[in-house]
Amino acid sequence: MCRNITTLRGLEPPASTEEIEAAARQYVRKVSGVTRPTPATEEAFEQAVAAIARATAEVLEDLPPRRQPPKADPPLRRPEVRTRLAGR
C-alpha cells in the first residue's frame, strides 16, 4: 500500500509515540489523498490520525515479540530525516 510506512514492531527501543503518530499520519495521508489538511479537512484528518495511532499502539503492545528486528529504521530514527526536520 504505502512504501513509506516502516515496520515498528520489534524495534529497540520500542516505537515511540512520535513514531507511531508519524506512521498513522502517513497512512491517513495515503488513504485520504489529503497531504496537507485544510480548515475543511483538518478535524476529520486529525481524528483519523489519532484513531489509527491508538490502534497501532494497541496492536504493537498485543503482538508477541519479533525474533528479528525490522530491516529498516523508521524515518524518525534516521539522522538525515532528523536533520531535515530540525531545519524547518
Notes on the structure:
With 88 residues, the chain is mostly helical. The chain contains 3 helices and no strands. It has one domain (17-86). Helix 1 (17-32) packs across helix 2 (42-62). The protein is globular. The model has no long low-confidence stretch (mean pLDDT 90).
Structural class given helices, strands, pairing?
mainly alpha
Proportion of strand residues: under 5%
Unreliable residue stretches: none
Whole-Å distance between the termini? 28 Å
Task: Report the radius of gyration as a whole number of Å.
Answer: 14 Å
Task: Label the overall shape.
Answer: globular
User: Helical residue percent?
Assistant: 40-55%
Number of domains: 1
Rounded mean pLDDT score: 90
Total E-strand runs: 0
Largest sheet: none
Specify the number of helices: 3
| Secondary-structure element series | HHH
Write the layout of secondary structure elements.
Layout: H1 17-32, H2 42-62, H3 79-86
Helix pairs in contact: 1-2
Question: Quick gist of this model?
Answer:
This protein is mainly α and 88 residues long. The protein has helices spanning 17-32, 42-62, 79-86. The protein has one domain.
